[in-house]
Amino acid sequence: MKTTDTPPALREESGIPGQRTANSGVPGTSRTKRGEGHVLNVFSHGVLVIWAILVILPLFWAVMSAFKSDKAIFNSPWALPDSLSFDAWGRAWNQAHMSEYFLNTVLVVGGSLVGTLVLGSMAAYVLARFEFPGNRFIYFLFVGGMSFPVMLALVPLFYVMDNMGLLNTIHGLILVYIAYSLPFTVFFLTSFFRTLPTSVAEAALIDGASHTRTFFQVMLPMAKPGLISVGIFNFLGQWNQYMLPTVLNTDPNKRVLAQGLVELSTSQGYKGDYSGLFAGLVIAMLPVLAAYIVFQRQVVAGLTAGALK
Amino acid sequence: MQHGKYRFIIGFLIAPMALYVIFVIWPFIQSIYYSFTDWTGLSPDFEMVGFDNYTKMFKDDIFWKSLEHSVLLAILLPLVTLGLALFFAFMLNVGGRRRKGALISGVRGSGFYKIAYFFPQVLSIAIVAILFQFAFDPAQGMINGSLKALGFEHLPNWLGDPKLALWCIMAVLVWCTTGFFVVLFSAGMASIPKDFYEAALLDGATRFTTFFRITLPLLWDTVQSGWVYMGILALGAEGFAVVNIMSVGPGGPDYSTTVLPLYVYQAAFRDGQAGYATTIGVALLLVTLAFAAVVMKLGRRERLEY
Predict the structure, then answer these.
(1) Interchain CB contact of B30 with A (< 8 Å)
(2) Quick check: A257 and B146 CB within 8 A?
(3) Prediction pTM value
């Protein structure tokens, strides 16, 4: 029905009917358009290509520099490395402690991610599925946290952590990461749990499963797509976290990758081991970059599902 | 059954609530309280000083400078980033003409562009900042190296020049966030029915009209939430990270790149003025909330259903 309605409506909009008939010959239209369209085409394609180069070039430069000597980095920044030298990689991995920072990051992000997903989905499930006094209040308390500037809370938080003995510990950092990931996670998963059908959960309850069991064995597996989306979002956010560890984690042995790299860039500036620094950068960015290339469809779907809600 | 239900609700909410209240809500409440004290952060003693910190803040030149820079970031960055992203997303999704028989499609190579543009988004902000700190190096960096190769003689001292430093910081933030919005807007554009475009094409609409008459109005909600998201990023964590890592000092020559979150950080953890730092933090909170409110108010339009 709709398709038959559309053309007349559009014809009225275009005003003079005569003009429309003159234009309606499709080859004619495209021929007259091609002249002005061509300039636009070249311009648009040019901008697209330039942006692609702007995005890829710095990354390419970093990877290339990691294989070069310090002298070559400065004297011929755009030349390909003479030989594939992995010296700098070894220096970065061992002497600059990138291996330790890598391990710290894996521990912190691993713990936080599991914690965020478990606690976030528990809270979201209860808030989405049960009526109880205070439900809306708790929901808005969580969601409101999305728009607060974290820096404001960090000053008192530093002293809260200090008093609890959590400052400069891996588990303390994990707890803070989880707490600051909860607003978005609860927000996203609450709306996700609302879309799941209730009949399956009701059937499980009638069969004698407890609420807890229903949640873990029935609802959680059904929520898998939502968990993957929000999981990717949190993984990238937590892996790339810089502000929280900078303030709350000042022990040199507990550094995460971002801190280690900043430290390395300051100290290498004095020592002049630039290839080591670039190797460190590449070590830190390659795993995520590789994961993105392999899973780019899921990453993009996860991130946009998260942000569009 | 009822009894079991409440036990279950409490059991499931207690852990997430406890974490959230201890590490997020409680510090927020505390920080507003501390903003009325002369607490140094170094000793446990402090006294209430009323609005002293606030009057001090209003007379503080560095505060006004950082406020100006933060507001500039919050207004200009979303404008440039979202503008670029809208253009790219439009080209990549509906910019092509009569390719592969489909009337409406992206330009050639759009699949590749979509993957490549997103690269910076998966990189840690710290990595991006370090990378560009080296690229901007006046003597040995990639940018001046390339300019020299092209024959330019007077090469700018990018991050060391108070007039240029903030613009360099903004360029980096645009570089690393545009890709995300390209992908976000592409997803939004994919849900706009194709017949809208086909009808417009039959009427002889140019890309220009198609974009302003069809794409932008139907995408408005996404653009608006993107605007708020980008503004909060610029006012908060990302702005802090880039300025703290990249700029000289940090904070730039003559405070030319100091932004509010950096000033909070320095006042609290470098200058031993925790009370005053939370006062600046409260100002940051107000700026963020005002920004979100203004965007929501200005951007309000009739919601289009399709």
Answers:
(1) yes
(2) no
(3) 0.85
